[in-house]
Write a structure and sequence with these properties.
2% strand; mainly alpha; globular; two-stranded antiparallel sheet
């Protein structure tokens, strides 16, 4: 059989072009052949939606014998089409900015309260017509015709390269979008910053016809048009149309009173919370007060009357920034001296002013939609109320606000600032080594970073301080890495200088830094403390030593932090506060240890003796602060924590007075200590419901001691708080303050607020767990916290 080899035939292989985009081809999903395609739009990846170089260059690519001349013609046509597309995109972007500018001018001039949807139809129709005309002109002209180039929109403020986006957090003005949104990853933020040059024209026209602005979002969620393009320097750039709330109008104070309040806040209150950057907030407040006055940014009519000025300011600024301003105003009014209140507000009571100001804060938070719109201003306002407002805000409301503030801060990624902090530190150190000053962008990053750390730890420390009473915390210690606030001066931050101070040097952040460290120590202590079998050496002394190092006299060799800034005059008050607060945390540690069945005999009595010594030291500092004439000493009594710490210490001394039988002289010496503690609490009772409640408690315990051992055998078993009445009138009763105290005796609140102690038969003297329960009742936490351990209604249940 003859063999032969087949003759190879020359074949022409035709490569069919794929009109699917490269992203859909990579994912192997169906593409609608449009650029950008709907699958990419839904995934938020339209910036990567393209057909690739092969398809864009030629429609059909043949084999070696392909049509070379046709390919060259196609390439030229595609290049011309791309150039025309870029020019057309620039025209559309310019029209978008013009439409937005016209809408803002119309809203600024009218301040109409009608729904915005009523005005969108005409604007969208005009925009669609203008865009259609531009498209027609562009398609009829040559590809080489010149078009105005679009400016890239400014992105939302972010913290460097970290996955964090805070809407207008450190702007020079409180003006910000009413509906700002959150971009939770840096990648999406970068896409949003450059999307103006990459949107496909036909889809943009469709969105304009619908009155919408096509923005990148998460999983296709519609975004507000003001998210990425809102400037932060013009107060009237994005006015909102909500009607002025009467509660807010009543507390938008005249400029004279507001300036005095803000000055007092800077001098005497800001160091207590440190939740704002001084220079930034001062600029924001000045911009706010310039609205509606001659020479201001909106000076078209000269000075306005009071009502019109209030309406103009309400419409011009972010309502959540107003909530921040009013929260500062609320706390400052509560802590200001009585003579200042009488001078600024003749005929008005402090209580009414504080209550009205708090109502205005709540109204602004609601108007700003703070539950749905994550906003840094809202976090700042909640943090200030949580740190300083326990004598002002109802307990249940405060706990709810704290929970909302923590979750909002987590949505803003304030809990993961560790990597960004390290990046900023390296950049600042590199610039310092070369002698180059930080530019504006780095200064803003530095301020925003430090403010994020301060606000996060303000919320976290309040959560950790409630662990002894609730048994739980909202913030898991292993699920956040934000460092403690740095001890730096606000003036240095404003200049882009990260000059870290020693903890012996005074700054507005020093108090918050030390309390944050003590809160972290307390959280670690309770996580390590076993339910039983604890020992002092393993479970108390390491944490006690960490707290002891925070005392000014222990770690710094002197009692008052020194300051290089003459404007910082609160050093004596801060030193006194730290001596009280840190010792109180040590007292909490020993109280918890005594309630957990220590493993070694004799350690219970030893821990109780340490607790009594700590209580005496706390009351000694409270007494010296109340009688001191040093500048700033009066600030100590105005802080809610001072009264709470004094009540806890006084209760320890009272329990020690009743605990064991002693000779008559020793017993009456301890009674005298309790009476002195009662006098200290009386001096605070006018402003502090906690102190007033402590006075009543000590009165009952002193009566038991005076009645003798037989009466003291009657154990306290039940407490009636009349929950229904207290819940109905909680805000008023929470802040039931008396007239300004310059008298020795203080009238106590009504009986419905006071515990009603009843006999429950003969029993043993008050034990340590009963003492813990009494102190727990004095802590203002919601009753729902008892649901975690099933002890709701039983004040002496073991913790």
């Amino acid at each position: 059989m003859s063999s032969f080899s087949p003759v190879p035939r020359k074949s022409h292989i035709i490569f069919r072009p794929t009109w699917s985009c490269t992203e859909c081809a990579r994912r192997k999903v169906r593409c609608d052949k449009q650029i950008p395609c709907q699958p990419c739009v839904k995934r938020g990846t339209q910036d990567r939606c393209s057909r690739g170089a092969a398809v864009d260059g030629v429609a059909v690519r043949a084999s070696e014998e392909g049509l070379g001349s046709d390919t060259a013609v196609d390439e030229a046509q595609v290049a011309a089409s791309q150039e025309s597309h870029e020019q057309l995109t620039a025209v559309v972007a310019q029209l978008l900015r013009r439409v937005d500018r016209l809408e803002r001018q119309q809203a600024t001039s009218s301040f109409s309260t009608a729904p915005r949807s009523a005005q969108v139809v005409d604007t969208a129709a005009a925009a669609a017509a203008a865009t259609a005309a531009a498209v027609s002109a562009a398609t009829s002209s040559s590809p080489s015709a010149s078009f105005p180039q679009a400016e890239s929109p400014s992105s939302a403020s972010t913290i460097g390269h970290a996955p964090l986006a805070i809407a207008t957090t450190t702007s020079n003005s409180p003006a910000s979008p009413t509906k700002s949104s959150l971009v939770s990853t840096q990648h999406l933020a970068q896409e949003e910053a450059h999307q103006g040059n990459g949107e496909e024209t036909s889809v943009t026209i469709e969105y304009l016809a619908l009155g919408k602005n096509r923005r990148l979002g998460i999983l296709g969620v519609s975004r507000d048009p003001h998210t990425a393009t809102a400037p932060t320097t013009n107060l009237l750039e994005w006015p909102h149309e909500l009607a002025l709330v009467p509660a807010v109008a009543a507390m938008l104070l005249p400029d004279r009173a507001l300036r005095y309040i803000l000055t007092f806040h800077t001098d005497a209150v800001q160091w207590q919370h440190a939740c704002i950057h001084s220079q930034t907030f001062e600029r924001q407040a000045q911009d706010y007060m310039d609205i509606g006055v001659a020479g201001g940014p909106d000076d078209d009519e000269g000075d306005l009357n009071d009502e019109t000025r209030k309406a103009r300011r309400w419409h011009s600024v972010d309502t959540l920034w107003l909530a921040l301003l009013l929260s500062i105003q609320t706390i400052t009014l509560h802590q200001m001296p009585a003579e200042d209140i009488r001078s600024l507000f003749p005929g008005r009571k402090r209580d009414a002013l504080v209550d009205d100001s708090l109502a205005a804060v709540r109204a602004c938070l609601d108007a700003g939609d703070f539950m749905r719109r994550p906003n840094f201003f809202a976090c700042q306002a909640i943090a200030i109320l949580s740190v300083c407002g326990h004598n002002v805000v109802d307990s249940n409301l405060l706990s709810s606000l704290l929970a909302v503030g923590i979750k909002t801060a987590q949505m803003l990624n304030l809990h993961v600032l560790g990597a960004e902090s390290e990046r900023v530190r390296r950049e600042v150190e590199a610039l310092a080594a070369t002698g180059v000053h930080a530019d504006g962008a780095l200064r803003r990053r530095l301020v925003t970073l430090e403010m994020g750390k301060r606000v996060w730890w303000s919320l976290t420390q309040q959560d950790y301080f409630a662990i002894p009473f609730r048994g739980v915390s909202l913030v898991h210690p292993h699920q956040h890495d934000t460092p403690f606030p740095s001890n730096v001066l606000d003036t240095d931050l404003g200049r882009g200088c990260w000059r870290l101070l020693d903890d012996s040097e005074l700054s507005l952040t020093l108090k918050q830094r030390i309390t944050s460290v003590s809160a972290d120590v307390l959280c670690r202590f309770f996580n390590a403390l076993p339910r039983s079998g604890a020992t002092l050496a393993d479970h108390v002394e390491p944490y006690e030593a960490s707290l002891l190092r925070l005392l000014p006299s222990h770690s710094q060799g002197h009692t008052i932090p020194r300051s290089s800034d003459p404007r910082l005059t609160f050093g004596a008050a801060l030193a006194r506060y730290l001596n009280i607060s840190v010792r109180h945390k040590m007292l909490v540690v020993h109280r918890a240890f005594c309630g957990r069945s220590p493993a070694i005999p004799g350690e219970l009595q030893r821990s109780q003796r340490i607790a009594v010594d700590l209580a005496r030291a706390i009351l000694s500092h409270c007494h010296m602060g109340a009688t001191s004439t040093r500048p700033g000493s009066a600030l100590l009594a105005a802080m809610w924590t001072t009264a709470y710490h004094a009540v806890a210490a006084a209760t320890v001394l009272a329990m020690d007075m009743l605990a064991q039988p002693r000779d008559r002289s020793a017993s009456w010496a301890r009674r005298r200590e309790v009476e002195q503690a009662q006098e200290v609490l009386r001096s605070m009772a006018a402003r502090s419901p906690i102190a007033a409640r402590g006075v009543s408690l000590l009165t009952s315990l002193l009566q038991q001691h005076e009645a003798g051992p037989q009466a003291r055998d009657t154990a306290v078993k039940t407490v009636s708080w009349q929950d229904e009445e207290r819940g109905r009138n909680a805000p008023a009763q929470k802040r039931a303050r008396l007239a300004e105290p310059d008298r020795s005796s203080v009238e106590l609140p009504g009986q419905q607020e006071e515990p009603v102690w009843t006999d429950a038969g003969a029993g043993a003297p008050l034990e340590w767990d009963q003492f813990q329960a009494i102190v727990s009742m004095l802590e203002h936490v919601p009753d729902m916290g008892s649901l975690f351990d099933g002890s709701l209604g039983d004040p002496f249940a073991s913790t």
